[in-house]
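Work Package 3 (structural annotation) set out to generate three-dimensional models for the target panel prioritized at the project kickoff. During this period the team completed the workflow that converts sequence records into discrete structure tokens, so that structures can be stored uniformly alongside our sequence database. As a representative example, we reproduce one entry of 91 residues exactly as it appears in the project archive.
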Amino acid sequence: MNILIVSILVLIINVPFGMWRANTKKFSLQWVLSIHLPIPAVVALRFLFNLGFKWWTYPFLVAAFFLGQLTGKKVSDYRKKNNSSKNSDKE
């Protein structure tokens, strides 16, 4: 049960970082930071929920990490699309 809770929290934590990453130049310092800054939070969650670093936890948490980043990118793209369509309606 703990792995499910931590996976959901990791996904949620990574959404804003994925939104940030979507709006930066690829391989820039901000791009790298948007990927690596959430890692200490993931490590803290592992300790908080007593998961440790067992090998079977990695697929779940890595998948949640990347799904959160991808979800953030999709949200950012959706917001850009809606903002551009609203701006074109005003003209």
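The helical segments are 2-22, 29-36, 39-48, 58-90.
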